[in-house]
Amino acid sequence: MTEGNGDRRSGIQRRGQADPGGRPIDRGAQLSRWLRPGIGIKRWLILVFAGELMLALAGAIVLASQFGDGTGAQPPNPLLDALSFQFLPAEIRLIALFTVGLAAFGYGWWRLLKVLIEPYQSRQEPLAELLYQRRLRARGPQIVTIGGGTGLSMLLRGLKELTNNITAVVTVADDGGSSGKLRTELGLPPMGDIRNCIEALADAEPSMTRLLHYRFVPGFPGSESASQAVDETTPFAGHAFGNLLIAALTDITGDFEEAVRHANRVLAVRGNVVPVAGRSITLHAELQDGSTLDGQSRIARARGIRRVWITPTDIRPNEEALEAIATAAMIVIGPGSLYTSLLPPLLVPGMRDALVRTSAPRLFVCNVATQVGETEGYTLSEHLAALEAHGLGDVIDAVLVNGNFTARQPENYPAAPVRVDMALSDRKGPHIFTRDLVDEKNAHRHDPHKLASTLMELHDERVIHRRHPARVA
Question: Is the pTM of this model over 0.85?
Fold first, then answer.
């Protein structure tokens, strides 16, 4: 069900010329929708027109009184005489036409605007603030984020409040949970990380967000089984509704990447979420003792990872991802699990070359805490050494790392804060920025608003500079 590159490009071209159902946009049909019964617009448009007509008549009377009409006497027309208040004295007629026309015009416009803004009245923020924020976000910089997992979706929640011009390039290496089941049973690329990113960027009602995140449980619907263990024999047990939605869209459209595009449009995503590739990626790892592991879920629990690689080796990046990287104002790698969320999309053949060619500064956001298993005990220098070992050290211009170690740490959790153990400025290495990025209530998570605000400040201040030119592999 995967299209070739040519088909993907045509899908990109269609994206701005099709409605959420994928059909070409008919401008005439769109206009006629505004005149359908029940919307409540036509009556106020007519009133506005009537007010304008009266104002025009008042203006005509003024001109005629100054210059004459130049047409001579005309036979009387009772209807026009009544509409133009000919039964009133000339001075009163002018005032009446102007007053009634202005009142009709103003009242019609007021009611018309009220109909148009009514859908936004349920929002808690004032409409003026909503419009201002929307215009402000529309002018925000083009930011491309690369990764997956909880870290990426958390970042997107903060970024979407500051810019609408976001492209999230998401890993497709997950093989556990609902995504793993759909990957095995239906042969679909894993969509759990993609669903989380769509959920984070969706400009939808909270109920829709909860629906995407909902997981089916035994006894569905309407039982008290939500607290019970999931029964694997239940048809949809353990599956997130958002995953099933993307799976259904894939079956409808015949293509996974197109299904994600549809999900972006249907859920009013601020920006764009794209899978790094249209096929599943399998992650492999070699450990320090020489043994190997296959599968993202197994590697995430492993200690002593020496290197990781992906298969198939002939996989190619999503064309939308490459286009976004080429035109970006900033590339953000992370935060997220180093070996299982960040490296898989970066190791897709063609991604490194795209990062080399872009003129945008490339920023690595380091996790605020180590992870049990894959990065247990890691310092900042060890995170960067892992990127270097996988041929990605020269495509990192700067590093953003947390410098606040006073946040509350969860009890009995074996992870620890990532410590900065290297110079903040090194001619041979990336420049390191330390900022307060941590969630004060949880020392093992970024604060999405702190992180997003810091990224925008770094972009606006133009303090991230390209290092020496990297070479295309």
Answer: no
Please check whether residue 418 is in contact with residue 399, taking contact to mean a CB–CB distance below 8 angstroms: no
Exposed, middle or buried: residue 464 (CB in 10 Å: 0-12, 13-18, 19+)? buried
Nearest to 22 by CA among 258, 313, 283: 258
Q: What sign does the dihedral 190-192-194-195 (CA atoms) show?
A: positive
- Could you tell me which of 227, 238, 223 has the C-alpha nearest to residue 182? 238
Q: What is the DSSP letter of 419?
A: P
CA distance 385 to 339: 12
Whole-number Å distance between alpha carbons of 146 and 343: 10
Interatomic CA distance for residues 202 and 196, integer angstroms: 10
**Whole-angstrom distance, CA of residue 386 vs CA of residue 306:** 8
Task: Quick: pLDDT tens for 344-373.
Answer: 999 999 999 999 999 999 999 999 999 988
CATH topology of domain 133-461: Rossmann fold (3.40.50)
Question: Do you find a cis peptide bond into 221, omega within 30 degrees of 0?
Answer: yes
414 dihedral zone (left: phi>0; alpha: psi -120 to 50; beta): alpha
Helices 149-159 and 448-461 pack at an angle, to 10 degrees, of 70
**Measured between alpha carbons, how far is 141 from 459 in angstroms, rounded to an integer?**
8
The ranges of the chain annotated as CATH 3.40.50.10680 are 133-461
**Amino acid at site 30:** Q
Radius of gyration of the chain (CA): 30
What angle, 0 to 180 degrees and rounded to 10, lies between the N-to-C axes of helices 192-201 and 149-159?
Answer: 20
Tokens representing residue 444 in the block: 């093992």
| Residues in the chain, overall count | 473
The per-residue pLDDT for 140 is: 87
d(CA 294, CA 286): 9
16-20, 22-26, 269-273, 291-295: the lowest-pLDDT one: 16-20
Position 74 confidence tier, pLDDT thresholds 50, 70, 90: low
| The three-state (H, E, C) secondary structure of 220-235, written as one string | CCCCCCCCCCCCCCCC
Residue tagged 């958390």 (tokens)? 154
Cα distances from 460 to residues 133, 454, 457, in angstroms, run 18, 10, 5
Mean pLDDT of 402-412: 87
Q: Is 366 helix (H, G, I), strand (E, B) or coil?
A: coil
Report the distance separating Cα 122 and Cα 118, nearest Å: 8
Cα 200 to Cα 312: distance, rounded to the nearest angstrom: 29
Give burial (CB, 10 Å; 0-12/13-18/19+) of 465.
exposed
